[in-house]
Amino acid sequence: MSLSAETTAALRDIGLRLRALRRVLFITGAGISADSGLPTYRGVGGLYNDEATEDGMAIEEALSGACFAARPDITWKYLAQIEHNCRQAAPNAAHRAIAALDDSHEVVVLTQNIDGLHSQAGSRNLIEIHGTLAERYCTQCGAAADTADAAIPPRCHQCGGIVRPNVVLFGEMLPERAISRLYRELDTGFDMVFVIGTTAVFPYIAEPVLRAVQRGAPTVEINPAHTFLSNRVSWHVAAGAAEAMTAIYETCRQTH
């Protein structure tokens, strides 16, 4: 899809502004992985869209901490589908552009995604606020577990306990370590904040953007759709993440 002249000009302005700044926060949601073939609609991996699962429950219920405690086989049935989706995906140009900026800027990435694509792209300062499918552990003894185990549910080779991925299931608390780290980074402050491919409905996603707006720091939203942040940020770019970030990075690196 070709970009309008107005959008192209905005992306150049953003790239020039980014080039002059140092410390940058990128907040990303499912939309950044759309160009990697991962759907953006509801269901932690994009397999469902307001439809009941074949087990007769909403995907949010099947992927909840309560369901995992009572019926880990059901939760793992859908986790396995999501893992399969994510294993087929590779980082796209947006992930790669953000990772490449580590060489010229002090970049922090706060992502809602559990697909591991930022890590695969090489981003070094990464807060995976909802965890990652790339790690598993035993719920009984805490030992790290084999991520290639295809059993449903997988069990710990050491104690036989039920294994789970290191992700936040629906209804569970966010990891305290990740939240603490996020607020330490926010207390340090950022020169510029990007929010990409997320509706920002969670307070811990919207707050860093709103903090930056209040401080007068430049803010950028990259999302084909409008959100409640669109009229508050310095720039709203109605484009795909890969196309937009490629253009921004190309402008930014011209004098680096």
Protein described:
This is protein acetyllysine N-acetyltransferase. Zn(2+) binds at residues 138, 141, 156, 159. The structure is a single chain. The chain is α/β, with parallel strands linked by helices and 256 residues long. It folds into 2 domains: 1-38 and 90-130 and 174-256, TPP-binding domain (Rossmann fold), CATH 3.40.50.1220; 42-88 and 133-167, 2-Layer Sandwich (SIR2/SIRT2 'Small Domain'). It has helices at 5-19, 59-62, 65-70, 72-87, 93-100, 117-121, 176-188, 203-215, 241-252; strands at 23-28, 106-111, 126-128, 131-138, 163-167, 192-196, 219-222, 235-237. The longest helix is centred in the N-terminal third of the chain and has 16 residues, at 72-87. The two termini are 28 Å apart. The model is unreliable at 42-46 (pLDDT under 50).
